[in-house]
Design brief:
This protein is an alpha+beta fold and about 375 residues long. It has 2 domains: about 1-145, PAS domain (Beta-Lactamase, 2-Layer Sandwich), CATH 3.30.450.20; about 240-383, 2-Layer Sandwich (Heat Shock Protein 90). The chain has helices at about 1-15, 40-45, 65-70, 75-80, 90-100, 150-200, 205-235, 235-240, 245-260, 275-295, 340-350; strands at about 20-25, 30-35, 50-55, 60-65, 110-115, 120-130, 140-145, 260-265, 300-310, 310-320, 355-360, 365-370. The strands form 3 sheets. A 5-stranded antiparallel sheet has the order 4-3-7-6-5. Strands 8-9-10-12-11 form a 5-stranded mixed sheet. The protein binds adenosine-5'-triphosphate (ATP) and magnesium ion (MG).
């Protein structure tokens, strides 16, 4: 009987036929007014595909739309007048309460798991607004609750795709490295051998021709070395062979020799070998960071720091170049610009890490990657 009455009242509130509601509580009866002008907004909010709520300062739900009731699988009349707390876990409740204590003027957002009445959970984003004080109106917070199931599924799909891109890139690099080594380097070595025979066949009378042949021999030797260097850099196998510290040292020395930029290196004393995926990610990120320094930074000094802590490993690459605005080169805003920064982020996220870029124009750029190490993960990914 009481349920039928409550439903009748709610229908009346939603259709705008009621201007005020009296709710009996522990501190006596309270009057909530619903001015006629709000009717249009109420109809709009009822037709929304997102949950909408207003709460008192004690977090009691004064108003909720049907969509929110559907999200928590609870009849609307049982949602109204109850605490918002019962739809959250205790951790989510603590997090939300601290946000409600100081709701940002422009609105705060948080992601939580909404607990439905049947025990199921729904990932949602809650946007909070402090409501202006309005006479006897006791709602102090307004909330919009957005179902994030689809967004999470899309995020997972994208993460899976970008993981596959990283794997495909690695496989392709391995294939190119092998082709270079098996075909080009082998051919160059054969040509070098024949050239050596030719040089040896020249007599002292053939001075200028012999000189040219020797020059050719030297140039070809340098080309073979360069091809071998490119092939080596493409292959992650060198990590297994030499270890991360040795490979980073070699990469940095080659970079300094090639570009004339001075590089300071610190913290290469690793406590233990890292998981193979983590070593590969750090190596690839350093390669791309140095390529960017070479192509864009106009730097004179670079500092590379590697630090292994108990729970994470951190690599920082610092340059004193011209700097840039990282916000214009983040994922999704790449436009015609390159894929290097995006690739670095993917590499970091592939192993559960994060990449931070700080850059100041005319001062320099800092790339920091931090990768978590799970307990006992050393050797975990090694075959
Ligand atoms: N260390 C740096 N110093 C100054 N500018 C940088 C630095 N690193 C990146 N940039 C700027 O950020 C842009 C994006 O870098 P990103 O590596 O994503 O692409 P790219 O180097 O232009 O192309 P790609 O890496 O695909 O060959 C660069 O074009 C450059 O303007
Ligand atoms: Mg680049």
């Amino acid at each position: 009987m009481r349920l039928a009455e409550a439903e009748k009242v709610l229908r009346a509130i939603r259709s705008g036929d009621v201007d005020a509601v009296v709710v009996a509580g522990q501190q006596g009866s309270q009057v909530f007014t619903l001015q006629g002008a709000e009717h249009a907004y109420r109809v709009l909010i009822e037709s929304m595909n997102e949950g909408a709520l207003t709460l008192t300062h004690r977090k009691t739900i004064i108003y909720a739309n049907q969509c929110f009731a559907r999200m928590v699988k609870c009849p609307l009349e049982q949602v109204l007048g109850g605490s918002f707390r019962r739809f959250l876990s205790s951790e989510d409740w603590i997090a939300l309460r601290s946000l409600l204590k100081q709701p940002d003027k422009s609105g705060s957002k948080t992601q939580v798991l909404l607990k439905a009445r049947d025990g199921s959970q729904l990932p949602v984003q809650i946007s909070i607004r402090a409501l202006p004080k309005n006479g006897s109106h006791s709602a102090v917070f307004g909330m919009v609750v957005t179902d994030m199931t689809e967004a999470q599924r899309t995020g997972e799909l994208l993460r899976g795709l970008s993981h596959r891109v990283v794997e495909a890139q690695e496989a392709e690099r391995g294939r190119v490295a092998l082709e270079l080594h098996d075909n080009i380097t082998q051919h160059l070595c054969a040509i070098l051998f024949r050239l050596q025979v030719l040089v040896n066949g020249f007599s002292t009378r053939d001075g200028p021709a012999k000189g040219e042949a020797i020059k050719l021999y030297e140039m070809l030797g340098q080309t073979a070395e360069e091809v071998e260097r490119i092939s080596r850099n493409l292959r992650p196998g060198v990590l297994d062979l030499l270890g991360l510290a040795a490979v980073l040292r070699k990469t940095i020395t080659e970079f300094a020799d090639l570009t004339g930029v001075s590089v300071k290196l610190s913290g290469l004393r690793l406590v233990a070998r890292l998981p193979a995926d983590t070593e590969l990610a750090l190596y690839r990120i350093l390669q791309e960071a140095l390529r960017n320094v070479e192509q864009h930074a106009r730097a004179r000094h670079v500092a590379v720091r590697l630090r292994q802590q108990s729970v994470s490993v951190q690599l920082v690459v610092n340059d004193d170049g011209i700097g840039f605005d990282p916000d214009h080169h983040t994922a999704g805003r790449q436009g015609k610009s390159g894929l290097g920064l995006l690739g670095m982020r993917e590499r970091a996220s592939y192993v559960g890490g994060t990449l931070t870029i700080k850059s100041v124009r005319h001062v320099g750029t800092e790339i920091e990657v931090r990768i978590p190490l799970s307990a006992g993960s050393e050797w975990a990914n090694r075959g």
